[in-house]
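Hi team,

Below is the intake form for PRA1 family protein from Brassica campestris. Please confirm the fields before the structure is written into the shared record.

FORM ID: S-0412
PROTEIN: PRA1 family protein
ORGANISM: Brassica campestris
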Amino acid sequence: MDWDSVAAGDVVEALREVEWSTSPRSLAEFFSRFAFPRSFSKWMSRLKCNLYYYRTNYFILLIFVLGLALITRPLAIIGAALTALSLAFLNDSFAATFNEKAIRTIRQFSPHLAAKMRPPHMPVIRGRSASRKTVYVCGQPRLVFVLLGLTASFVLWFASCGLLWVLYALATALLLIMLHASLRTPNLKARLNTFREEFRAVWRNNSEL
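The structure came back. Fields below:
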């Protein structure tokens, strides 16, 4: 896959739509080979490739650094967990899976309430949903849950006086991620993986036509 021709927005869109439950890469692979990129274009290509390929490892690293920084502040830890959950809702696969499990659990206690939480019916035009990008969680657009989670997180951080620590930890985690993504040389497995994901995306889009 030619990562030079992939825009940053395309990488963000791919991270939003990719399967959320991908297992993290092994530590041996994660810390195997490092080298400085030879040019700016090589660096950008490597950065986009590694951010996509090691996405689960980077997410775990982010949570780990935040947990270490807030280990003495329980309210701030809850706030960090809410932030992680809110950001996870931005991923289509995670939001859909969470929605189905939540409705299935609520149905056991209140079938009528679970029926109301089903997403509204979307009109279909020429075999394709008119709002294919809209994702619902418990009957509401997922953006509602994202905003509620981030707001609650901010309140918890402010109440625990841990907001400054969160900012420091977040900056540290992002710096570590950028350093690893910049110096880790993409291997053949990473390139083959991106080809496979690309094929699956093309096949899924064609099946919807």
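SUMMARY LINE: The chain has ten helices and four strands.

Thanks, M.
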